[in-house]
Amino acid sequence: MFYDPVSETQEAARDARGPRSAKRYDAAGEGALTGPERMSRSLRNFLLRLFELLDEHRVGYCVLHSWEKLPDELPNDLDLAVLKVDRSKLLLVFNGLRADGYFPIQTLNHSANGNFFVFCWTQPGGVKTAAVDIVSEHRRGGMRLARAEEMVANRERCGAFWVASAQIEFAYLLAKKSFKRKASESQSRRLTFLVQKLGISQAEELASGFLPADSYKQAVASCSDGSIQEFLRDGRNALWRRSLSRPWKAAPYFAREGARLVRRWFRPTGVTVAILGPDGVGKSSVITGLVKNLDVAFWRRHRVFHWRPNIIAPKPDLGPDPNPHGKSPRGSITSMVYLAGFFLDYLVGYALVLRPLRAKSNLLLFDRYFHDVLVDPQRYRYGGSKWFAERLARMVPEPDLVILLDAETATILGRKTELPGHEIERQRKAYQELRFGHAVKVTIKTDDNVNDSVCGAAAAVAEYMTKRFDERFQGSWSSAGARDRAEAFS
Fold this sequence. Notes:
Elements: H1 8-15, H2 35-38, H3 43-56, E1 61-63, E2 78-82, H4 90-99, E3 103-111, E4 114-123, E5 126-135, E6 137-140, E7 143-147, H5 148-153, E8 156-158, E9 161-163, H6 166-180, H7 185-198, H8 200-207, H9 216-225, H10 228-232, H11 235-244, H12 247-266, E10 271-276, H13 283-294, E11 302-306, H14 332-359, E12 363-367, H15 372-375, H16 386-395, E13 401-406, H17 409-415, H18 421-433, E14 440-445, H19 450-473, H20 478-488
Parallel strand pairs: 2-5, 10-12, 10-13, 11-12, 13-14
Antiparallel strand pairs: 1-2, 3-4, 4-5, 6-7, 8-9
Helix pairs in contact: 3-4, 6-7, 6-8, 6-11, 7-8, 7-9, 8-9, 13-19, 14-16, 17-18, 19-20
């Protein structure tokens, strides 16, 4: 599948079909989407549509903090509390977002009743993402601080959306930032404002619910005078000290956390992507662009590998080889011994590094993969039997997605001239003929500008993740989801 940049005119024509032409508005009548704005996709329109659908399906929710610049800006992710009884309605909300081209590509189960959802869409100029963290209870350090019913009970209307009360916002934000041991400048200022609004005594009463006796007054005082960063350095320890002082309440938490981590291991949310193609086709630029475009979907965790995991006999990365065919191949037996060692590196690396990182929701990017030796054996000084390399390639752990970058030979030679034109042409054909077992293979043309290549690769990864999301979590969406997905990412 090839990425085709979508112009605003094409967007308008596409959105004029089907349910996307439906009228949109927010419940308070403010920030309504009308005219051309209604037909375009953007972060602002995604958030407004999300809030509209939540109200439309009568979902009891509230934004928990950092709403001052919504819907025009989203500093990190959007934290929502949703009533437990309304969680099933989120399927309807997600369906509505999908109909407008905002696709769920990831869900990370970070706590017993908390999921971090990531949505992706195409808009003129690229692929964009936004994260929504939905909880039906607030837990930190083994303690349940509030149920969704408590967080939503005294919510207040703020334009197009509902927000938590000052009491809930203060307790939630202080506990969250204490657990993370850091806060942004805007969050620090917000905590200072909330203490002033609530008053010292009420703020201390709220903080005493999750911080030990020797810490909660210090926390409120530091919020009041703007020195909260100093307190937060030891904030997580303070939460755990309070939690472990009541082991009868902490024990069930650890049991649930253990079960959750086991599920994450067997259903990893990370993705392994191999980027293949001749020198000069743009692999490095695409890898950099994928990290920039999709890092949010992986909690900003990623690793880049060059050809192999580099666990056995690791070598430092010296960058691109200016003369990849400069050394003669090793002898047949020696070549096969070396290749068997590289194969073993993949097996050990998968067990000790790749599989754990996938379970921890990392984006794993390979600049070339084991199968590259079948296309360009001279680069790896392989002079052994082809059948031996093919047999190992069939047994090596495969990536989830293979993105083959391709461009006209003249274009590639205009970027790099290490290899002659006839060799580039041979490699291009050999890459197209590569076959994999379960890995999805996608071809992206890179003749045009770098941004188009990055967008095409990001769209391919997003499409793969959307399909995985459907298969794992939303089986009932599969048929409609496949049709809409093909339209959005084509």
